[in-house]
Inverse folding.
């Protein structure tokens, strides 16, 4: 009997209801069998015309299928594609599922589980009603409850493997009822959330995270969307940098580039819009169609108040990468952090840190009305952290009020090496925070940050950042009425330039030491007067005038009369010893340098103790007493190794290698020279070549 099945009479009440078409209906007593010719649904949207990258993702998905084929599948494979909005999750799913299509005759199903955003997750019952209808036609007697309809759905998908795409899932409860019945089926779920709860009920769930496109793939996608043709490379680079590998942003930018090319317009105007954080999100929009900002607006609107406040606060941070400790400090509750992570607004960074995608960070910043207390919180957090590094690396006197409370700094880091290593990750951030604090008028925090950063910059030799921060510190101090703060900032800037010692640095350092001396003398601050004289003496020593240097050092000692400053006296004893060595007053030099070593050890100050031993060894070599140089160099090398000071460690090893070579221990000398060359190389120091020359000599 051909045609639409209807009711069939009879005492048994055998009836076929619904819209399934049959070519044969056989009645055997009260059992009826039907052979369906209804074509399995093909609901998948077309794959994207333009698609790049994700080779590694497809390889991972392929391996998952291969593993299932080698084993015995007992449940469908569930793949959760997760990532930031606009990262191409749906495009990737469609690309892969269409490749698989021919091998899955049971039907290809697709639905959106949150068409109005995560605040309105769709009831899986509504999705089941649609899927069951597509699989079997409209039926008046289908179950109305979730459990019954899910069972009917599994029955309809039990005979052949099916493909199912569930877009924008908000929670695992939406997904579980929608898993088909055939164990060889494949279900792809796209979500901003990891949906880790699926693993509890479905252990074979595979989670694949989509990350930003690399530069080459981004350029390929932009070219394809723009319609090809020759593009101005500098402008193209600026456009791609602004998109930060977000496929949605690249597609929108490509559409705008294509429009500009068609109209013969310049791409540089678009590049400038995208380069400016204030206009970037507006530029990444196609009127009345697509917008990066709209995508993030939907995510932000769904945030509870606590996470939303944290989101806005992080938007005010000058960079999109943060220490976890800082983020926790800013959050009102730990769950605020976890919520932003679940929403993919905060992502894991390097070495346990957290980061925002650049465009997400722009969006977060756009939600604020302007700088508020968050800037103070940032400046205070970085100041305390920098001060803790400074406290661990030096015993010098500091003017900033935080250093008068050492108990607040002592527990942050366990050692100088730990402090310096930990602060490396925050170097770019703290420089940016100094700039932000200056721009927003937080001048006291700026000059205090400048002072607190000396130990880190001095040990690690980041002179470009160091001099820039010191220049801001001096400008900030001048905004106040504290002349001693101004004197201290002149001192910091002079010290940074003197340490760099590039072309013109000596003259700049001498000028600022002079300003520091005048300001400190006017305020009657003996320590700063002494420090300025010390700095000027060091410049005299560098200029080859040890007698003038010695005079400055002696005046610096006299300035400390009545001041309890053992470290200052130790340093001046050390410098005076160097001056006497340069004057060829060898025995006096040896006595002063050994005395300074004892004074540094008593503080204690391992870093300067090592330098005193190194200078003593140099002085003995100048006095033709090479036999007295080896032991102090061994001691210096042992002391400096734990100080996190690669430049000074390399200096000591280079000299010890020279002494070892003179003693005929060539192999040991080469070991020291190799280590010195490596350390100099990490700093970009020209002294690396000197170490290499020694290694290349016969």
């Amino acid at each position: 009997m051909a045609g639409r099945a209807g009711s069939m009479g009879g005492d048994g009440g055998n009836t076929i209801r619904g819209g399934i078409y049959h070519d044969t209906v056989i009645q055997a007593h009260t059992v009826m069998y039907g052979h369906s010719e209804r074509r399995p649904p093909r609901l998948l949207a077309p794959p994207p015309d333009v698609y790049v990258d994700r080779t590694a993702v497809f390889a991972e998905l392929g391996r998952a299928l291969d593993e299932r084929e080698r084993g015995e599948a007992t449940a469908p494979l569930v793949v959760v594609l997760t990532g930031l909005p606009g990262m191409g999750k749906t495009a990737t799913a469609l690309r892969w599922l269409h490749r698989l299509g021919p091998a899955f005759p049971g039907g290809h199903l697709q639905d959106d589980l949150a068409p109005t955003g995560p605040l309105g997750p769709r009831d899986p019952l509504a999705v089941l009603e649609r899927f069951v209808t597509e699989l079997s036609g409209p039926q008046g007697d289908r179950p109305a409850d979730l459990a019954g309809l899910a069972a009917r759905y599994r029955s309809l998908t039990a005979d052949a493997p099916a493909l199912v795409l569930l877009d924008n899932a908000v929670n695992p409860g939406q997904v579980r009822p929608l898993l088909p019945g055939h164990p060889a089926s494949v279900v792809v779920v796209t979500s901003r959330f990891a949906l880790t709860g699926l693993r509890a009920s479905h252990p074979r769930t595979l989670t694949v995270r989509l990350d930003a496109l690399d530069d080459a793939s981004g350029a390929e996608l932009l070219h394809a969307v723009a319609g090809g043709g020759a593009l101005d490379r500098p402008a193209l680079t600026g456009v791609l940098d602004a998109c930060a590998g977000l496929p949605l942003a690249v597609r929108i930018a490509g559409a705008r580039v294509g429009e500009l090319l068609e109209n013969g317009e310049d791409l540089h105007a678009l590049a400038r819009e995208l380069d400016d954080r204030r206009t970037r999100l507006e530029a990444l929009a196609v009127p009345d169609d697509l917008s990066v900002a709209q995508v993030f607006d939907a995510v932000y609107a769904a945030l509870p108040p606590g996470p939303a406040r944290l989101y806005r606060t992080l938007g005010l941070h000058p960079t999109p990468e943060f220490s976890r400790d800082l983020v926790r400090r800013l959050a009102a509750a730990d769950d605020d952090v976890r919520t932003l992570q679940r929403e993919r607004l905060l992502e894991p960074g390097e070495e346990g840190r957290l980061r925002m995608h650049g465009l997400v960070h722009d969006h977060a910043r756009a939600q604020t009305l302007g700088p508020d207390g968050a800037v103070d919180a940032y400046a205070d957090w970085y100041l305390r952290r920098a001060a803790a590094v400074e406290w661990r690396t030096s015993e010098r006197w500091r003017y900033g009020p935080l250093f008068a409370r050492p108990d607040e700094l002592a527990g942050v880091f366990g050692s100088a090496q730990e402090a310096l290593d930990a602060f490396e990750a925050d170097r770019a951030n703290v420089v940016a925070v100094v700039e932000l604090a200056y721009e927003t008028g937080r001048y006291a925090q700026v000059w205090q940050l400048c002072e607190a950063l000396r130990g880190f910059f001095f040990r690690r030799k980041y002179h470009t950042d160091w001099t820039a921060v010191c220049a801001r510190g001096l400008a900030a101090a001048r905004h106040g009425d504290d002349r001693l703060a101004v004197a201290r900032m002149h001192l910091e800037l002079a010290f940074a330039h003197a340490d760099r010692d590039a072309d013109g640095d000596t003259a700049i350092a001498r000028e600022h030491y002079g300003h520091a001396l005048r300001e400190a003398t006017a305020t009657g601050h003996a320590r700063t007067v002494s420090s300025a004289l010390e700095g000027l003496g060091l410049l005299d020593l560098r200029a080859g005038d040890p007698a003038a240097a010695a005079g400055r050092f002696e005046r610096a000692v006299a300035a400390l009369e009545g001041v309890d400053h053992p470290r200052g006296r130790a340093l001046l004893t050390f410098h005076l010893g160097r001056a006497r060595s340069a004057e060829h007053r060898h025995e006096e030099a040896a006595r002063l340098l050994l005395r300074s070593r004892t004074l540094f050890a008593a503080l204690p100050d391992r870093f300067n103790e090592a330098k005193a031993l190194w200078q003593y060894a140099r002085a003995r070599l100048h006095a033709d007493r090479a036999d007295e140089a080896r032991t102090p160099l061994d001691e210096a090398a042992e002391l400096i190794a734990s100080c996190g000071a690669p430049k000074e460690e390399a200096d000591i090893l280079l000299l010890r290698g020279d002494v070892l070579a003179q003693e005929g221990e060539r192999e040991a000398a080469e070991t020291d020279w190799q280590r010195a060359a490596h350390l100099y190389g990490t700093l970009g120091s020209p002294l690396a070549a000197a170490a290499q020359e020694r290694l290349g000599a016969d």
Q: What stands out?
A: Confidence is low (pLDDT under 50) at residues 1-36. The CA atoms of residues 547 and 579 lie 7 Å apart.
